[in-house]
Amino acid sequence: MAEVKQYGEGEIVFEEKAYCDGVYIVTNGLVEIFTKAGENEMVLTEVGKGGMFGEMATIDLQERSAGARAMEPTTVVHLGRNEFGGRLQKLPLWALLLIQMLVRRLRESNLKLVELQTNESVEPVEKPRDEERLVADERVDADQIMSEMGRELSE
Q1: How remote is the C-alpha of 77 from its chain's centroid?
Q2: Most exposed among 75, 86, 96, 154, judged by the fewest C-beta atoms under 10 Å?
Q3: CA-wise closest residue to 106 among 57, 71, 70
Q4: CA-CA distance, 93 to 95, in Å (whole number)?
């Protein structure tokens, strides 16, 4: 169930490497997404009104790849991991695969960016167990994907 949460300036929404509890949509304020490599902290992006954050870990069920901190008084709508995941499961299989691929590539790019900026090696996060993945390997069936795509094109 979605809930409204308030954060004060400088307050941490979630820490890097934390367990994923869902996604956040900013309704007011500004959130900074940051990562740490050793003693260095690097801002990856800022998310303002209407923006979403926390989606990567919710999609690929890995730990948080970065932390989130309110830069000013901020209001967010928090959508829990199970509710968000349940809504994603309603998408066609090919769309789920695309989303997972994009998240994986973004995680890899973020790691490379941090390594380039800090000259420090960064360990990738542990991969989720098969039963925790949004799309398990046994669901990846070429005939099913083609069938879903054909149905959508004919609608």
Answers
A1: 15
A2: 154
A3: 57
A4: 5
CA gap 135, 59 in Å, rounded? 10
3-state per-residue secondary structure call for 19-58: CCCEEEEEEECCEEEEEEECCEEEEEEEECCCCEECHHHH
For 36, what's the count of Cα atoms within 13 Å in the CB-facing half-sphere?
Answer: 8
Dump pLDDT digits (tens) for 71-123: 999 999 999 998 998 888 888 888 888 898 898 899 888 888 878 877 766 66
> Residue 62: in which H helix or E strand, if any?
none
101 backbone dihedrals φ, ψ, rounded to 5°: -65, -45
